[in-house]
Amino acid sequence: MSRVLLFLAFFSFFGLSVTHAQTRQVTGTVKDKKDGQPLVGVSVTVAGTKNGASTDTNGTFKISMPTNAAVLTFTYIGYKTKNVSVTNETKLSVTLDEDANNLQEVTVNVGYGIVRKKDLTGAVGSVGADVIAAAPVSSALEAIQGRVAGINISSSEGSPDAQINVRVRGGGSITGDNSPLYIVDGFPVTSIADIPPQDIESIDVLKDASSTAIYGSRGANGVILVTTKNSKDGKTNITYNVFGGIRKLAKKLDVLSASDYVHWQYERALLDGTPTDYTQYFGNYQDIDLYDNVAENDWQDLVFGRTGTTFNQNLSITGGSDKTKYSLSHSFVTDKAIMQMSDFKRQNINFKLNHRLYDALTLDFGFRYADTKTNGGGANEQNEKSSADSRLKYAILYPSFPVPGLTASTDTNDEFNLYNPLVAISDNDQYVHRKTYNINGAATYEIIDNLKLRSEVGYDGFRNDQDRFYGITTYYVKNLADYPNLPTLNSMNTTRNSFRNTNTLNYNFSKILGKSHNLNILLGQEFIKTEQNTLTTEVHGFPKTFGFEQTRVLTTQGKASIIDNNFLPDDKLFSFFGRANYDYKGKYLLSATFRADGSSKFSAENHWGYFPSVSAGWRISQEDFMNGTKSWLTDLKLRGSYGAAGNNNIPPGQITQSFQNSTTTWINGFNNYWAASKIMANPDLKWETTITRNIGLDFALFNSKVTGTIDAYLNKTKDLLILFPVGGTGYDAQYRNLGQTQNKGLEFSVNWNAIKEKNFDLTVNANISFNRNKVISLGSVKNINGTSGWASTEIGVDYLVEEGASIGRIYGYKSAGRYEVSDFTGYNATSGKWILKPGVVDATAFVGTVRPGTMKIEDISGDGKIDLSDRSIIGNTNPLNTGGFSLNSRIYNFDLGAYFNWSYGNDVYNANKIEYTSTSKYASRNLISIMESGQRWTNLRADGTISNDPAELSAMNANTTLWSPYTRTFVLSDWALEDGSFLRLSTLTLGYTLPEKISRKLKMKKLRFYASAYNVWLLTNYTGFDPEVSTRRNTPLTPGVDYSAYPRSKSYLFGLNVNF
Amino acid sequence: MKKVIYTLFVIAGITFVSSCKKTLDAPTKSSLDESVIFSTPSLAEGSIAGVLQSFGETNSYRGRFLVFYGLNNDTEVYNTLKSVDDDKAKLSNYNCNVNNSQMNTTDNAWAKFYEGIERANLAIRGIRTYGNIESNPAMAQILGEILTLRAVIYNDLIKGWGDVPARFEPITTATAYLPRSDRDVIYKQLLADLNEAAGYLPWPGENTTTARVERVNKAFAKGLRARLALAAGGYAQRLDGTVKLSSDPELSHDKMYAIAKKECLDIINSGKLRLLGFEEVFRKLNEETGAAGLESMWEIPFSDGRGRVIFDLGVRHIKTDQYTGQNKGGTDGPNPIMLYEYDNDDVRRDVTVVPYEWDGGDGTKGAIQVPSSLGRLYFGKYRYEWMKRRVTATNDDGLNWMYMRYADVVLMAAEAINDLDGPAAAAPYLKMIRDRAFPTAPNKVTAFMATATASKSAFFEAIVNERALEFTGEMLRKSDLIRWNLLGTKLAEAKTKLQQLENRQGKYAALPAKIYYRTAANGETVEIYGLKLGDTDAQGVALGYTSNKAWTMVTTGETVSYWNALYTKDPNLQQYWPIWQVFLDSSNGMLNNKPLNL
Lengths: 1060, 598
Description:
The complex is a heterodimer. Helices cover 10% and strands 45% of the residues of chain A. Chain A is mostly beta strands. In chain A, helix 5 packs antiparallel against helix 6 (276-282). The longest helix of chain A has 14 residues, at 258-271. By secondary structure, chain B is mainly α. Chain B contains 21 helices and 13 strands. In chain B, the strands form six sheets. Chain B has a three-stranded antiparallel sheet, covered by helices on one side. Chain B has a two-stranded antiparallel ribbon with strand order 1-5. Chain B has a two-stranded antiparallel sheet with strand order 2-3. In chain B, a hairpin with a 6-residue loop joins strand 11 (514-519) and strand 12. The longest helix of chain B has 25 residues, at 137-161.
């Protein structure tokens, strides 16, 4: 409580006085010195007072100044500040010089305030509106992919509304979510996917603790601050941006030809000893040439091959007066995706109002609304009932021609277990309607000179309505529904509301300390409360003929099974924070922050976490001894920081063991049960803390032609909040604080204004980041297993976290190719078996009957057989480096932009490839052409018998390279891991701006046409659809799995930017 | 202005000061307090379902314990036992390791059993604290039911893993890690619990809850107490790894047999249960009638979409057909010698041992019975074709697991009374079972009883055999053999018999080499000749059946013969499974498998 009292005392310390004096009116115009164009929004202040005005659209201003004052100060971003002495004039004509070194005036949002970039002492990466809007995408995160060093952004798959993974400098948590904290206009939100890129003024990424510590408990994984646009100058400005175009599937996987498919089916049936598997569906082997010319369906084309269309428009109006500024924008996106039944629509409204009520009192108001509708179940889902329902495999493995008895009906045999690809997607259909709105109000009161009190109140509403249909071919309906084999509808309505109140007090000590010293102190207090509940209703037993639409609107036709309105405990956060920024002559900079957070997720003893940080900067270039380098070294600043940030990213309610009521369909006579959660409560939970150390260098060379930043960091996270397995105690797991992880890395970014001529300029921008993750300690635990589960239970543990190594390492077998004829002493015709030579590993127990051509696994344990002990670490999904570069050029009225991004050195776990190249227990499935005839081992003689003649088999397979696809199970070997390195030209844009003379005639300030292509070019050795993928995200332990990802598309667009 | 601001802040400050204490409280919302749940019978009943939910978890009773526990013995085997190094076979052939891929997962039966126990412990504490059981019989009945369910789980934990940690209170930080406890401690607690529970529970059919076998009744609590008493008073491989009787005087053989006798007689004398026809018992089970007061005493109440009883233990259907939309069955089956253990007039054989499977048809109709092989037989007690509904789920059949039936009580009574009072007193109970088994040959029963009652040991011998004939497929055999200290003996015996059977030696010498069969006039069932002692090849040929096949358990190219696949290590020293690696890893060093020398 003492904190509150202290805080109150701070207020009463400052007195204030307002004086009134005689005034007179001065008017004038402000122009650019170079081209004589009027400058709009120039800030004009009477030196030494708070009196100010700004220029209007014609560059004119009007200001009242005291008769005794003599100097007017003109400041404008990108221009040198000018002081003009006024004696008796009432009309002034002022010209401003462009500031070549304008970078230094760029400001950066650091949370609860902004600082000039040149005064920055922490590691912050920023992206401006021009870059964000340059990419023709609907999500801001996609737009800044590869643009900021130290932040790794990857989209999980190619679906509209796909989840985008963001990692700032790796991630400290092991089992927890490593997503950064998103703050939009001061308000913490869970996602920024619903904010249109065109509405964003800037995105600032806080990377080290000196900048994130101001967000205390939630800053450990970095903070992404989004500032939406508002009118800068109160001048009326109407902009209209629109683009539209088409999208096409970027890549397809080749599958076996019909003829090859039936030949393989025949061989498989013989190897399996069940020739009826073949004859039952495909006839006699003698007639196999019937399939040579059968008409084939390209299922990938039928499911994912349609031409998608995309349309995106944004209309924004900004304006006001020098007292009132507003901005209002509307965005509309509609996207017909490449997959059948899949589309996306979003509407946004964004309104901002800023009003200076009195000289000392400013009011801000903001309102955002987003309405997103996504149709289609996609190709996979995170909260799946069974991985058997993943949809991509149907388009690959389903026979390409109709097979009577196999593909004719929805009934299928267990050893095929596939349905028509189009039926599969309509039976797994989904509709998601998400509405988010955010209302923010703030009052800023300048109590006395340089002492500002700002009080913000905000409310954030989130509503997610998700209807998921399970048709009769789905695993869920077949196995778990109350009325088996009848359609089921699951609806989840999630409501989440957050309330926020933030009060900050900011004092600038310039009056007290004099010119050389600059000290700014911020004190603040914040309260955030989030309430959430989810209403789940599930209706089973719809009429068999019902599709998704009917079940949605005719729920009374089914039988209610689950109605569960589940309320989470409130999540409350009560905080105090402060920050001091000091500099001496802009040369020595010092910044310290402190935040105390109280979280309701912890018990009373552990409520509070304290997160301090310090940072310092030294502008070396301003030292006298650097005079000799002035000719080429424009600016050089060394920065260093040290601090702590926290993480409380666990579900609320982990402190006490409460009884939960859940529905059950497993027990006769009951439809619900009371039980303690499967997660054991832990009253001793406390904050996870990340200590970060950062050292950085900012430089500008050759009159700022080249600017850049280098950062090195070492982050250590301790007291990790880990979901610790406690099986055997009565619970499955318990959240515990244990272990320690480390991320260290290097980041470089450079910007080169290579050419800057009147009609030609060229800018090159590049960044690269290296991050190395390591688990230092797991406490008493030996290792933590990750199970991606794409093959249900067939593969088991496939990721392993161990001390001394990074997270994201894949655990499996090493491929040893295949059994060659030379591995056997020969074939025993009486037993029907091939006899292995002594010393050759026997994989029978693992892959099934061993014969020449069978997949071979390395016997790491050396015990002569293949079992679990032969697994080892076979891959790492962490990239060695990631980055991006861009080229921007203007030639006369043409502009050209090319944006590249890459990832290097990471492995991708190509689970698709395993499923599409081995039979496991299934019959009749197709294969991809990696396994086509001539590649795979074959045992089949032309006469339709299996060869067991060693010499003949060797001859038949002299040119084949792969093993036989016939295996008993799916096997994860290093063969399925592929280098996921890629270089992508994500955006290529060519634009043309109409000459001003013509656009003026059209009553426009500016008119630009452009053509743009997105995801146009990809350089990679990856054989799957796309190496930028991660589909098994239910646990953070299993990144980089490519299983049933929605394939990516390329898009080609035309657009228009108009300013009125 | 100034003053206004100050005033506002003072107000704001006071608000914070006064609300600060509660600011960070965030109680659970979608929950009720223990005091509410456990003082209201309709709510407390939900905690019974909570315990049963753990039974139904993927790798709990549903997918692991019921299919793998109890194998191999002289009556029941894992049907793919010849793949001796396969992890599933290793669960059955007394050669199981800590990292068995079937079991070594965090959601294994071991974990789910303790989950059920924790849920029971929480409920028991809640009801004892808030339930007012003295004045509230409904609440007392719930307590009795939960005490009984907890005893069910402990019974199977001890059977499965030997001496296991004893948890009878909700977990606390202090009890998060516990070592193996001597099973005597657990037995004593369970015997007391079941005694208490029986006091709270009504007899079958006495109220609406106990009208169904899916809910626990007094007879089951008593029957389970008798079963536990016999186990506690019998042999077992103990913590030190040796097989011996309990040294605890409270658990002496005599005291335990006295408990079993008393409880069994209580049940029999209550007249609340009765023996049905032998086939009727299992027809009713498969028809899912569920009425209490007949032979079944309690069943794990799997819903239609959960549980794998026929899926794993039933007669196999190779394809989906007119009786099932699920092509499963036959993971486990009878030991082949069981085909020849029954007297030709014993009606239990054809119900218990099925030498055919279903094949053919188009997936929805037309499947017929075809002979399987001598090495692949099925438990006929669980049959899709006896069910009233067609199973359509691909992974579960939903049949209840009959945990105990009246015949078990009757035979336990016979065993206990013989032990305490001699064969004459025990004879009527054995005769009840025998009479039912031979409805058409009462003279054979008389002759049998005369031999059995010759001496106490002869009677015991008869009980040992009778329990095999009666309960094959019900997975009681292994624990019976253990408590009698006959596990190794009977397995060795079975090994010899199997070898003799394959080679047509000893009592099997006259058995035909082939079986002769045809599809019956109904176009569905198979008629087989050659399965009975006394049948001959000559007669088989003479019958003119359409088909015949060699009746053998050897397959070409096999590396391990059937009889050698029965057990790998000494069964007596591997009486239970090890605690799996994942649980050793998370036990903070408290757990090990030293008793098994692993």
